[in-house]
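Sanity check record (used in CI):
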Amino acid sequence: MNSTRFPMFYICLILFPFTQLTSCVYSDFFWAKDVDVILKNELHVPANVRCKSRDNDLGDHEISIGNTYKFSFKTNFWGTTLFWCKIWYKKYPNSEKYSEANFEVYSSESHTEHCDHICTWELLDSGIYSYDPYNNRSIKEYDWNN
Ligand SMILES: *[C@@H]1O[C@H](CO)[C@@H](O)[C@H](O)[C@H]1NC(C)=O
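Expected output for S-protein homolog:
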């Protein structure tokens, strides 16, 4: 468990009667962070995306050329929030095959510093890049399959 969150469990135990304990633990009182994930389509074709966590399936969405897909969530108490996305697209409008990738977009346990509250991913022909706004640069993280 995330060491900065663990003591908060005891603070909840002390401050809240048992009936409110769960809402204290799961509320955003102390530790829940708001996270935005942004996927930018910088490909030359539309892309399809489907993002999920253990509990949520955000469904299929199309991101047209030059546009973005964004979703937001709060991190959980246990520090185990994990979202991943599948992206697939046709390199050419009439091709049969899809290029695709299935990758982690946010993990409480292993996110980079520049993906703490806003995680921006750029979909390029050459792969999937994580945008670091502090240094205004994009870092390649994943390749497309095919
Ligand atoms: C970020 O870098 C790009 C080139 O990679 C440049 O065009 C842009 O002006 C830069 N933005 C800032 C805020 O420095």
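The CA atoms of residues 35 and 73 lie 6 Å apart. If this sentence no longer matches the regenerated tokens, the check is flagged for review.
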